[in-house]
Amino acid sequence: MEKRSALLALLLLGFLLSGAYSATFTFINRCNYIVWAGTLASAGSPALAETGFKLDQGASVALEAPSGWSGRFWGRTGCEVDASGRFKCQTGDCGSNNVPCNGAGAIPPATLIEFTLNGSGGEDFYDTSLVDGYNVPISVNPRGGTGRCGVSACAANVNAVCPPELKVTGDGGATIACKSACEAFDTDEYCCRGAYGGPETCKPNKYSRVFKQACPSAYSYAYDDKTSTFTCKAAAYLLTFCP
Q1: What is the pTM of this model?
Q2: Among 156, 74, 81, which Cα is nearest to 109's?
């Protein structure tokens, strides 16, 4: 009996250490342009095998995340190597000067996907966020999960409806990204800080409503929780640029 109990304990330990509750993230690029994905682990979570990578049109990359992992993903656009050999992007750049972001996050404006994986087999939490602005359409589609496994997305071209005062323009004057009101104006009201640092005082504003109308399931401001936080008990997630 003691040997059997010891064997069961070893099997359970192996089950936990094997990452049984880990997740597979598959990134695919449906845009008609190249996207360079970026990944950033939250404090206390390990970096994934890739912190930045190129996705040609139609290309896909799969990454494994361990049990309990949390972090964010985004897309970079208009990227190239400059005359000094540094890798730079027009939108979503992480400032690492390389294709891998190496622990650096996206420079706003950038559309973000945020994840917290449950470490004990419970529900994962995920969302699409425009709190740091918008640069590329993206969606998260759970695969093989149980529970309320909804699709979180900002599939619309927010650049087409971006207010003039929030626009980021590229060569030729085309809008390539849309700032958040916080980044554009840096006020307590728009940034949900100071006297506006809670859900009771930080409310939707005319700029966040533009984002919400275009992408109803995405966070449009910091406390946009009711319609923007998703949960799922799943083993895999499909992240699509330009869904």
Answers
A1: 0.89
A2: 74
